[in-house]
């Protein structure tokens, strides 16, 4: 189940993916198979080779691509999610979801 994103964010991500850009979308996520993970980042691009090449820079394997729909993507979560988002200068996407509300 995904939540914590606005429709315009999702639509922008979908359009960027369809346009062949490497695009990032981070949202809250609940999946019992991954205890302790409350967010996921989808890194998508309709150009599968471009996306696979991007992923290989971070040790992501082509066979890990989610190709089940019109928006091919890698799912990032846990420590690797934070490491990759930081390396890509996009840690703000994760920080806005994990920021302490008491700050």
List keywords for this structure.
alpha+beta, single chain, 4 strands, 4-stranded antiparallel sheet, 103 residues, YneQ
Write structural notes for this entry.
With 103 residues, this protein is α+β, with helices and mostly antiparallel strands. It has one domain (2-98). It is built from four helices and four strands; from the N terminus they run E-H-E-E-H-E-H-H. The protein has a four-stranded antiparallel sheet with strand order 1-2-3-4. Helix 3 (78-87) crosses helix 4 (91-98). The N and C termini lie far apart (27 Å). 20% of the residues are buried.
End-to-end C-alpha gap: 27 Å
The portion of residues forming beta strands comes to 15-25%
Number of domains: 1
**Widest sheet: strand ordering:** 1-2-3-4
Find the count of extended strands (DSSP E, 2+ residues): 4
Q: How would you state the average pLDDT, rounded?
A: 89
Fraction in helix: 25-40%
């Amino acid at each position: 189940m995904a939540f914590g994103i606005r429709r315009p964010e999702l639509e922008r991500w979908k359009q960027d993916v369809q346009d062949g850009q490497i695009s990032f979308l981070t949202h809250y996520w609940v999946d019992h198979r991954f205890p302790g993970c409350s967010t996921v980042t989808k890194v998508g691009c309709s150009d599968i080779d471009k996306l696979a090449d991007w992923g290989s820079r971070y040790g992501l394997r082509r066979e890990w691509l989610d190709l089940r729909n019109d928006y091919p993507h890698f799912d990032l979560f846990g420590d690797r999610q934070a490491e990759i988002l930081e390396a890509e200068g996009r840690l703000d996407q994760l920080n806005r979801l994990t920021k302490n509300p008491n700050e």
